[in-house]
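At this stage, I put together one protein's amino acid sequence and its backbone structure tokens, which the following lines show:
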Amino acid sequence: MPLYKIDNNKILPISRTTFAQQNVKERKDLQQMLKSQIEIISPDTLIVAEEFGEWDDSRRRIDLLGIDRSANLVVIELKRTEDGGHMELQSIRYAAMISTLTFDKLVGIYSQYLKDNAQNVDASESLLEFLDWTEKDEDRFAQEVKIVLASAEFSKELTTSVMWLNEFGLDIRCVRMHPYESNGETLLDIQTVIPIPEVADYQIRIREKKQKERQSRSYSKDYTKYDLSIAGRNYDGLNKRQLMYVLVSEIIKTADNPEYITDALPRRKFKIFEGILDADTVNARLMAEDRGGVIARVNRFFSKEGEFYHIEGKTYVLSNQWGRNYFGCSSKL
């Protein structure tokens, strides 16, 4: 679709150009600009690697590798060409190659990316914060690999292939980047062409339904019950979150220095606020940090009146999110 500008009560066309004519390079320019503003073509995505190619017997590299807020990996391929080349075939190969990545492996990849870009950030903490997780969860990690193709234009063969593949459960988006030139400036018209914006919500709902069906078939909830004896008291039939709450509460009651428990547990397991706060204030503080995840942030903590702790002028709020991976930490308490 052409672009126009209004000038002295006239509607004037803006000249369409190409990235080549504007001397915009694929890797040097497009990739470098988009990796720091990836939401332009892939909303709610964190870039964790560029030019990624850690596999055997292949010189091919993913332009940008990301992860979305649902913990799905995102392969992002960029082209400045007018037809997109064979980028859909390349991206499918890449998606297959990274589909077996684990959370710990991604932490290592992301750590190198942060180092290469001079960012002094802890990779694991950054990923967990982005995902709004309190701990890694391999059962929810990388359940899908999504693909984003961004090009100046796409051939009919490419778009037909992508729409066919999406019908079979793949998640491939095509984002068109049309460059224009006006008064010496390069303008970009960026539009998602697949899925078609008018029916995107319907397509996403169908995909989410299929995903939930797969999860219901494969996910088995942990109903393990635990018995705890501590400080002369016995507690029977506790689930994981009840076990950790009782354990931490008893230690705080009996310890000479209850603050040491915050050093024994992972930092994300406590929210610490200055002052002696009531439940309404605690909940307001927690929701101020809410990122709109599936579970409201206030429901991720023991935040009802009487459940949190007041220690030396501070309010300590314990997480109620405890998976299998953290039960080794009880040996530190």
